[in-house]
Amino acid sequence: MADDELEAIRRQRMAELQAKHGDASNNQQGEEAKQRESDMRNSILAQVLDQSARARLSNLALVKPEKANAVENYLIQMARFGKLGGKISESGLIEILEKVSQQTEKKMTVKFNRQRVMDSDDEDDY
């Protein structure tokens, strides 16, 4: 991704943020801003993902939209900071998915709290 392209994307994003915060009360402008942001995200993802990785990400978005959004945000940030060295293949996307899954994985523990029945003595005679 060339520096000129990144600079154009940054300028476009800055203009969108200013428009969004400046006069977002108008519904039409809000929808247009959302559409522009969506288009910008799609163009960045098209530049950093190859076709098979893009298909996998869209399949993930159908099943788990929150996780797909997290992966998209991660990829966009990596692209903005220039940390991606070319297009990501499907196997590279799988590695990124595993990283995001590990970061967002919730640790679940089950704790049993057993309470004693009110006994007057500890020894039970049967």
Automatic annotation (TrEMBL):
Compositional bias ranges of the Basic and acidic residues kind: 12-23, 31-40
Family from the record: Belongs to the PDCD5 family.
Organism ancestry: Eukaryota, Metazoa, Chordata, Craniata, Vertebrata
Region Disordered, annotated ranges: 12-40
A GO term from the CC aspect: nucleus
BP GO annotations: apoptotic process
A Pfam family per the record: dsDNA_bind
Name the UniProt record assigns to this protein: Programmed cell death protein 5
Known role: May function in the process of apoptosis.
SUPFAM superfamilies on file: Double-stranded DNA-binding domain
One Gene Ontology molecular-function label: DNA binding
InterPro entries: PDCD5-like (IPR002836), PDCD5-like_sf (IPR036883)
Keywords: Acetylation, Apoptosis, Phosphoprotein
